Amino acid sequence: MSRFLPDPFIIALLATVGLATILPANGHTATLVGYVATAAVVLLFFLHGVRLPRENMIAAVGHWRLHLLILGTTFIFFPLFGALLQRLFPGLLPANLWGGVLFLCALPSTVQTSIAYTSMAQGNVAGAVASAAASNLLGIAATPLIAGLLLHTQGGAVPLSGIWKVVLQLLLPFVLGHALRPWLAEWASRQKKLLTLSDRLTILLSVYSAFSAAVIAGIWSQVPILTLLVLALVCSTILIAALLFTTGSARLAGLPAADGRTVLYCGSLKSLVSGVPMARVLFPSAEIGAIILPVMIYHQLQLMVCATIARRQGR
Predict the structure, then answer these.
(1) How far is Cα 269 from Cα 107, in angstroms, rounded to an integer?
(2) For residue 313, what pLDDT is reported?
(3) DSSP label of 111
(4) What is the CATH number of the domain that holds 18?
(5) For residue 107, what are the contacts with CB-CB under 8 A and spacing of at least 6?
(6) N or C: which end of the chain has fewer CB within 10 A?
(7) In angstroms, rounded to a whole number, what is the distance separating the alpha carbons of residues 89 and 14?
């Protein structure tokens, strides 16, 4: 039963949402929390730059069919499928939650989780490392652009100020961190647990800041239990479609079984670590809660479903 239980980090996320619901940051406290969360996001992407080995990006060129299939799933299939669902069933969810679903579809792949599940399933781990790195690097630029196009089709938008903030708060720290990698890489490799904890604390802080603003704006009066269940159904549909698409496309491309499993996990998983900070940078405070809610639900679904599949494939 442990595979179906919530991930401990999801429990921490839910506790953070509960805290923001009961004790939302307001006034000067909200301003202070916002500054701290912004600093944490800048540090997060700086450390991502430090930890990204350049050789992984070079390796991605060598196995181009594998990586193009994964990146195509992440940045083409997901956005198109999400847009199709929204066009077919516009009244199924409120507009702000559809915005969150479309933002979810624009996110890059996970890094740690996709590599871990690929390894568990006896897939091509080296290919997973290269593809996950490429996906996250491209996502810094591609996610705001794709999200902007998707939201524009439903009458929304990604503010231009948000895209400029991505450059200053995400891309610039990432580039600086990668430039300093020759001097900091060894230190980062010794501090993996500390840096993982830092990643998670940054997300929790961003979630608290986002949901505080959302609670003050009245998010829970807009999202009743039935709507949450429908949102979970929509996220489940997207995950099932991604799993079927990655499995079928890998077979059509004639990839070996190990590479097919790499496509399955790197292509179908979406990054909460990148998604929450990006949403905080891109969108106004009052909108962020609804934007990241689908990301949080999809994250838990992908953990449970893909862990089950990976264990069976590994056996």
Answers:
(1) 9
(2) 86
(3) S
(4) 1.20.1530.20
(5) 74, 139, 143, 270, 271, 274, 275, 278, 295
(6) N
(7) 28
